[in-house]
Amino acid sequence: MRMHTSARANMRRNTGVYRYKLKIAYDGSQYFGWQVQPGKRTIQGQLENAFFSFTGQHIKVHASGRTDQGVHAAGQVAHVDVPSRFSGQSIEKALNALLDNDIRILQVDRSCATFHAQKNAVSKEYRYFIWNNEVMPPFLRYYRTHIPQPLDVECMNQAARMLVGKKDFASFTANPNRKVETTVRHLSALSVKRKGHEVVIIARSDGFLYKMVRSIAGFLIRVGEGAILPLETQTILRTHLRTAKVQTAPPQGLFLWHVYF
Amino acid sequence: MRMHTSARANMRRNTGVYRYKLKIAYDGSQYFGWQVQPGKRTIQGQLENAFFSFTGQHIKVHASGRTDQGVHAAGQVAHVDVPSRFSGQSIEKALNALLDNDIRILQVDRSCATFHAQKNAVSKEYRYFIWNNEVMPPFLRYYRTHIPQPLDVECMNQAARMLVGKKDFASFTANPNRKVETTVRHLSALSVKRKGHEVVIIARSDGFLYKMVRSIAGFLIRVGEGAILPLETQTILRTHLRTAKVQTAPPQGLFLWHVYF
Q: Can you tell me the ipTM of this complex?
């Protein structure tokens, strides 16, 4: 165990608890998702190990929400309680020195003691990136889903518009048997944009169901391919049942992009 | 060994040899460079294996030039002689299906029998990419060299301009004891550009010495950091000796960008 001597000295002087807000980016390729699982390499696990090496304390890292295996984050937000006062920058530097370079702390700020990364999050933005050309550039293979046949972005947007609003998304979650109080969610924005060979699906909501973004992405890809008509979106929503028309798109295209507070 | 039956049938019909020009991109991270080496995973080796699986023949893949271990290519060019006539697209599709996804065939065209990827190359462009900000985004870690302290691009360009032209680059090659007829090379262009946190060094020449681009990059980085004055460039060139002022920059920032014919 490595431990900064300054941290050790600090802890002897202070007895208070200080809350910090962390902004984190990670490449999810090599992880079993965010959440700590025994014997598995997870983002939360690596962060908590780094905090332990830095402070000598078991510190829980609370995220705005979990991300699944293989999913990336450009702007995950978490909060921690540290039993000693540090500058945000010294926490940032210490953690980045301890962590593997596929997890990076982008910013650390002191926050008020009541700030909660999950409860205070007003909404979250996910982006799903597709490389829509015959050959996938090797440098993007971990960060894009490859769809060789041309996608009709206008059709995808027609379908996307029908999904926006407060609706029952039971047809767009991977496991409807999971105990959730309700499958009604408010999807505040959903749009599809093309830039050259890149197609990106942008989704924003105050709460997503399990694998909801990847289910929507898988559905919109099939619409873009012409396999499903945009008009069918209404019917699929109304069935409240997951069918073969909605496939979960692979994780490597998905980024937790931004958390709004 | 996999072999397309159509390829086998074709070979019985044809006895000629057909030359093709290949445009190739690769992520060099997992390779011991371009050139075939016994027991090592190389780009050329993987391509020749793929050709063998496709045609049942040992076909040599001649590149415009080698790239070193860990160096990438966005536009490597090679030629091959195939003992059977295929469409360029069928070769492209077959190879991409056989190769790992860190090597991609971007284009295949029939060429005249005298086309030679190395001898006919008029010049080559290399690009060296630097991430010049405190924290390195995890998604770029294999494709950028990380320099946290701010680089002075204007100083780097002052030094770069002194390197342009026909000069003896003995001070800018990694191993001056290597048997080369001359260390004089014509560097036709060298410039440094910044776009946000990204700094890119663009070098063009009809021929580079061993590790010349990475030596120039390592030198320009030190100039950008203020450790070497741009004016010292002349002195370093004139010594014709490799000194500690010229360090070889790491391979992951370097891309063979384009080959001109």
A: 0.86
